[in-house]
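Postdoc handover notes: sequence design on the structure in folder B. Input C-alpha cells:
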C-alpha cells in the first residue's frame, strides 16, 4: 500500500515564479535609464543560461558550496561583456543581482498554495538561498511552513541529499513527501530519492511555448496549475 502524502515540497524558479519576465523587467528598469538599450528577454535568457553550469561546479566538487546569490553574481559578471556592459558600475551590478529577489509569481500560485496549505505542510526545496526564498515569499504571499533546499543541504539539486534533507527536516520518510515542479529532471531525481512527484505545467516558462506543458517522465500527479493540483490532492 502506498503511504499517504504528508508534506509538499516545491521547486520555485519557473514552477512558482516567472523568472524570465521578471528579470527582463528588472534589468530594463535599472539599465535603460543609464542609456543602455538591449534585448531584455535575451539578457534574462543568457543569465539563466549559466545557472546549471555554475551549480555543476559545486555538485562536482570543483567549487565549495556557496549561496545561489554568489553564483548568480558570478554568472552576471560572465554575461555582461556579451551585451556591451563591461563597464557597469559595482553598485549597479549588486543592485541587478538582487533582481532575483524580486521575481513575480505566476497568477495561480498564491491561491493554489493557500488551498494546499489547508491540508499539507509546505516548503520550498529550491536551489535558491534562504534570504532569496524569504524575499520571494514576502513579495508573493507564499505561506511556507519552513524554508528548505540547497542551503540546508549544502548542495544543489538534483543531488539526492537536497531532497532527503528536506524529508528529514519534517521528520518524514521520503515516500510521505511530494516534490512539486515544472521540470521533469527535478522530479525524476526526487523520485529516485524515494519521494512522490507532481508536475505542474509551465509551457511558457522560457518564452511562448518554451516550457514543459507535460512531464517527460512518470509522475504521481500531472496538473495544469496549482489550482488543479489542489483539486487532485483534495485540498
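Designed sequence:
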Amino acid at each position: 500500500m502506498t503511504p499517504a502524502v504528508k508534506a509538499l515540497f516545491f521547486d520555485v524558479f519557473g514552477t512558482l515564479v516567472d523568472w524570465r519576465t521578471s528579470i527582463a523587467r528588472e534589468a530594463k528598469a535599472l539599465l535603460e535609464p543609464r542609456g543602455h538599450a538591449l534585448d531584455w528577454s535575451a539578457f534574462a535568457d543568457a543569465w539563466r543560461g549559466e545557472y546549471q553550469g555554475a551549480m555543476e561546479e559545486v555538485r562536482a566538487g570543483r567549487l565549495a558550496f556557496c549561496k545561489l546569490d554568489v553564483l548568480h553574481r558570478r554568472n552576471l559578471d560572465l554575461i555582461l561583456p556579451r551585451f556591451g556592459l563591461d563597464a557597469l558600475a559595482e553598485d549597479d551590478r549588486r543592485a541587478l543581482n538582487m533582481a532575483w529577489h524580486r521575481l513575480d509569481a505566476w497568477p495561480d500560485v498564491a491561491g493554489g498554495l493557500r488551498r494546499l496549505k489547508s491540508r499539507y505542510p509546505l516548503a520550498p526545496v529550491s536551489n535558491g538561498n534562504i534570504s532569496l526564498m524569504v524575499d520571494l515569499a514576502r513579495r508573493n504571499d507564499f505561506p511556507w511552513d519552513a524554508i528548505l533546499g540547497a542551503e540546508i543541504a549544502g548542495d544543489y539539486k538534483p543531488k539526492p541529499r537536497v531532497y532527503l534533507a528536506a524529508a528529514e527536516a519534517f521528520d518524514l520518510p521520503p515516500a510521505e513527501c511530494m516534490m512539486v515542479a515544472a521540470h521533469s529532471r527535478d522530479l525524476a531525481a526526487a523520485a529516485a530519492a524515494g519521494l512522490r512527484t507532481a508536475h505542474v505545467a509551465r509551457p511558457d516558462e522560457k518564452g511562448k511555448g518554451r516550457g514543459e506543458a507535460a512531464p517527460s517522465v512518470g509522475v504521481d500527479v500531472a496538473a495544469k496549475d496549482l489550482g488543479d493540483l489542489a483539486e487532485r490532492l483534495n485540498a
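Context for whoever picks this up: The longest helix spans residues 19-31. Don't rerun without checking with the PI first.
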